[in-house]
Amino acid sequence: MADRRAKGEPSLALRAGPKSAMDDFTRRRQKLKRCLKEEGLDALLLTNPLSVSYLTGFSGDSSYLILGAKQTLLVSDGRYAEQITEECPGLEAHIRPPEQRLQEAAAEQLKKMRLRTVGFESASLAVAECEGLRALTPAIDWKGKPDRVEKLRVIKDATEIQQIREAIRIAERAFEMFRPMLRPSDSEKELSDALEMYIRWAGGTCSSFPAIVAVGDRSARPHARPTDRRISDAELLLVDWGACERFYKSDLTRVLLTRKNLSFSRTARKSRAADKLEKIYDVVLGAQEQALRAIRPGVKANDVDAAARKFIAEAGYGQYFTHGLGHGLGLQVHEAPAVRANSTDILQAGMVFTVEPGIYLPGWGGVRIEDDVLVTPDGCEVLTSVAKDWTSIHVGA
Amino acid sequence: MADRRAKGEPSLALRAGPKSAMDDFTRRRQKLKRCLKEEGLDALLLTNPLSVSYLTGFSGDSSYLILGAKQTLLVSDGRYAEQITEECPGLEAHIRPPEQRLQEAAAEQLKKMRLRTVGFESASLAVAECEGLRALTPAIDWKGKPDRVEKLRVIKDATEIQQIREAIRIAERAFEMFRPMLRPSDSEKELSDALEMYIRWAGGTCSSFPAIVAVGDRSARPHARPTDRRISDAELLLVDWGACERFYKSDLTRVLLTRKNLSFSRTARKSRAADKLEKIYDVVLGAQEQALRAIRPGVKANDVDAAARKFIAEAGYGQYFTHGLGHGLGLQVHEAPAVRANSTDILQAGMVFTVEPGIYLPGWGGVRIEDDVLVTPDGCEVLTSVAKDWTSIHVGA
After folding, report:
1. What's the pTM value of the predicted model, to 2 decimals?
2. Are B122 and A128 in contact (CB < 8 Å)?
3. Looking at CA atoms only, how far is residue A370 from chain B in angstroms?
4. Is A316 in a helix, a strand, or coil?
5. Which residue of B has its CA nearest to A194?
6. I need a labelling partner for A184 at 20 to 30 A (CA). Which of A62, A206, A308, B373 fits?
7. Is the same domain home to B167 and B147?
8. Same domain, B96 and B175
9. What is the mean pLDDT of chain B?
10. Cross-chain residue pair B210–A8, CB shorter than 8 Å
11. Does B223 lie in the same domain as B130?
12. Minimal Cα–Cα distance from A198 to chain B, Å?
């Protein structure tokens, strides 16, 4: 393919149509503009493609957004002219000529707009790019800050919540196909590939990350890479998957009990291994319930992590819960807030994150249960709905 | 999924096994170490995950590599301890505790090693990360440079060429499945999704980018996003696809003539539209031949672009070849060298890049032919082999 990074990227344009999409983007830009006054800036230069998409609905890249108090300008190139008109009605754009680099075009426009103090995104702009910009704009006083846009993105607006719900619905439809299609001879790799296809059939653009399908003791690795191991090799199957609707992501985990060993059937007499698995499963599910109960605005994210962690520790498995409880979800599959022991985030209504306690016993196996939640004014709404009680995770039983 | 970026990432470990892989990585590190003396550095801190993978074979992320004259140290964390032992036998690793951040651990090790002048990767390290590192290491004199590793990566070693050949073989097998499976009722989106699956069935990890499948006049957009448009809506189908074997990428484009209109059949009398398409196809193919003939060590990359561009211009389509001729291919689907009009790169044996001239007539359609080539000591080898003569691109004819 020709050298253009945005090729094939999903569109952020909303199903609600350009008019209401425009309203969302204008509203987000208005909120961001508050920092101009607060920080004494003439403008912001947004260079992170996620920031540009979030603030304009533009789904391409290689484009910078200049956000001034009075003027907003998207600096892009001819390849995107048509797309900008479609995706960002009413947004002023400067189309650079092919022989001019993006930085040069942005510098030229900043000078033309007579901007003197300009904020930039220090968490995403690389040192060399920043040096290039400074060299092109000796009169500009550049003020880097890592999280101006990220702080807005952490609270999802109604349109974003709708898009996350859609990403979840797609992932859940894919799992509805996945379950009845399981065969004992399927390998982890085959099943991970199949999930990718089911997600696309269900209307998704693609997986939000390469699906984890881990058989037996491989489930003890929280981020196992799919291998040729077959389902029939063990009773336990862990599946961690998510869908990308256009831009927004979902992320779920379930374990399934496959039927190789009848001891896992509800009706058969259970083996000691099955007893152990059921006990661990109950602990993880209980820990998740504790965490869900703790979620509401004003609560510290690390206290939510602690609620789950305490429950697991009291059951004697504390040392086997080896990762944080959850992470924010949105345009990225991992974003703010951090829901873990060393987090300083405070929960607010409109945050969306995963709640995914796990117990991993090396050489034996792991159990993780992961759902996506929205913080509401008085608690939380669990957005995901795949069944997770002990009896419902038996495949074909 | 739990917050860990490398989950599901393909492994860079070589099929040849850990021993020979180790040799490649040691060789690459030895080459890179030359810049220590040249630049008066005590060490390099490699923070770009691609650099770390290229130099060690480690396929995870969240890890920094300290490359000193005498000591090489991978700073990572407990989640990766087992994987580092598997993927990087013999490499010294420092495993940080969970409560310590990666930057803090790296700073601690740099101090311990008494390094005073340290190079960093300015093209990938973000400003905020760099500031964080500087604050943690006030005694270190940091020297940023954008392309120390990239300059090595531009010349592929034998192992890399083998891996790129494998990525091409997978993409070509996928296309062999794709062609006979085409149905008039298939949409661009369905076919793009199907190609993803064929690539995985053929042994690939995934597509190296979302496949472009463009019907009729949509092929005039060099980076068309797949829609619900059906094959039967037009005669022309453009497919731009590539595979990722583990880490290395391939990238090809072919146009196919579908049979809706019998005028495109070899045996039927041709319409004027078919005449126009055949003429344009011949021009693009001829332009590619001109470019391929121009490729050999010592030649300027922009002269190769010019060879194709001149041929297209002389045929009267100069203004419709709207992108550069090609781009390097390797760990990334777009990397050095740049093969376009404003490139300053000089071709060297061992470079691998795409050669992809195109003619795009808005509202009518586009033709692009893309192959991957390796620069050899006396010319070039075309690594891709999907048929592209006029008669062979008729589907089912």
Report:
1. 0.89
2. yes
3. 7
4. coil
5. B197
6. A206
7. no
8. no
9. 90
10. yes
11. no
12. 10
